[in-house]
């Protein structure tokens, strides 16, 4: 099939691709005859709220899921670079500023049953769920662990603390003892740059514990300038030079800063790349230029529908050796996170 001749203008159009079909409910599902390997997703989140925002029931499926980015409107689904739109970015920014005082309504829809349903439809065997922690009265990590425990082992929590948390070491050690296979760090949402001294002490502990780090890297250009500076790629070098045994995943492969992310992955053996948020064209570029043993699929659910990000990876790897797709979609994450030892 000549994929270049297929027009994908909405998420629903993904059914035109050879790997998808629709079930009786009109949902996109993997075509069982398409030979798609089991998938491990290294990058997802449950909805979040903090402090006075009210507790989210992450097992509630009474509301339809809402994604941060809308793929039901006309656009080039596989290769658009418009998300977040200005409007979407403003809503996310508003939620960040107000998150101590209100629960974002959209967050109450971003729950485990909806995530599991997409996993079942799209052949995703395991998914890593990343909490975003704030310095005081934060509960996202605790809720993430509690929810994953109810989901039969398919959802695996990342550890997460804010670098300024006084008890950071005890909390990280406790979460590792509870089964965390990695650690999530987000310089923009946590307002702490990766070269901050408080962040560096966290990375030192994670190197000691042999726990991989998934870190948001780069920026889309729609964030406020001060937030873009927090995730700028040059600020990561000190981590890679200081902690050579710390396995570090550059989330989103640097977003619009792909060349810098590729350079780091080439220079430092411990640096890996996550494909969440990249277009099909950029995903193909990353796979062609980087070590295929250091690239992993991530959906960044609920920012993106899982079908969109999976379709982009399938399109990007079309025509490559079957082993490349299998490594990106499954084997690399299984090896990095030692899933055979669970």
What would CATH call the architecture? Alpha-Beta Barrel
Name of the CATH superfamily: Metal-dependent hydrolases
- Low confidence ranges: none
Integer tally of domains: 1
Indicate the overall shape: globular
Q: Compute the gyration radius: what is it?
A: 19 Å
The helix content, as a percent range, equals 25-40%
Q: Tally the helices.
A: 12
Question: What does this molecule look like?
Answer:
- With 342 residues, the protein is an alpha/beta fold.
- It has a single domain, classed as TIM Barrel.
- The chain is 35% helix and 11% strand.
- The chain has 12 helices and 10 strands.
- The strands form 3 sheets. It has a 5-stranded parallel β-sheet with strand order 6-7-8-9-10.
- Strand 8 (248-251), helix 9 (258-267) and strand 9 (271-274) form a beta-alpha-beta unit.
- Helix 4 (168-177) runs parallel beside helix 6.
- The protein is globular.
- 47% of the residues are buried.
- The model has no long low-confidence stretch (mean pLDDT 95).
């Amino acid at each position: 099939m000549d994929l270049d001749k297929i027009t994908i203008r909405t998420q629903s159009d993904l059914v035109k691709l050879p790997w998808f079909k629709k079930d009786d409910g009109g949902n996109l599902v993997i075509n069982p005859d398409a030979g798609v390997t089991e998938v491990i997703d290294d990058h997802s989140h449950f909805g979040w709220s903090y402090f006075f925002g009210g507790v989210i029931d992450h097992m509630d499926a009474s509301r339809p899921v809402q994604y941060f980015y809308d793929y039901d409107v006309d656009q080039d689904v596989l290769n658009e670079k418009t998300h977040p739109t200005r409007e979407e970015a403003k809503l996310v920014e508003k939620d960040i500023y107000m998150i101590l005082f209100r629960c974002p309504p959209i967050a109450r829809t971003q729950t485990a049953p909806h995530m599991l349903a997409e996993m079942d439809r799209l052949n995703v065997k395991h998914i890593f769920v990343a909490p975003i922690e704030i310095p005081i009265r934060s509960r996202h990590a605790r809720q993430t662990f509690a929810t994953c425990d109810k989901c039969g082992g398919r959802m695996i929590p990342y550890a997460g603390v804010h670098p300024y948390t006084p008890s950071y070491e005890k909390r990280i050690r406790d979460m590792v003892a509870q089964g965390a296979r990695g650690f999530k760090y987000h310089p923009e949402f946590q307002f702490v740059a990766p070269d901050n001294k408080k962040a560096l002490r966290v990375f030192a502990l994670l190197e000691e514990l042999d726990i991989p780090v998934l870190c948001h890297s780069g920026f889309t250009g729609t964030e406020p300038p001060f937030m873009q500076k927090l995730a700028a790629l040059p600020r990561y070098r000190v981590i890679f030079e200081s902690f050579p045994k710390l396995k570090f995943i550059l989330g989103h492969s640097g977003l619009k800063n792909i060349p810098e992310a590729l350079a780091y992955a080439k220079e430092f053996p411990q640096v890996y790349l996550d494909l969440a948020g990249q277009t099909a064209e950029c995903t193909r570029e990353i796979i062609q230029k980087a070590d295929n043993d250091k690239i992993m699929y991530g959906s960044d659910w609920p920012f993106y529908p899982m079908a969109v990000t999976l379709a982009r990876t399938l399109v990007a790897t079309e025509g490559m050796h079957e082993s490349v797709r299998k490594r990106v979609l499954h084997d690399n994450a299984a090896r990095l996170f030692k899933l055979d030892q669970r």
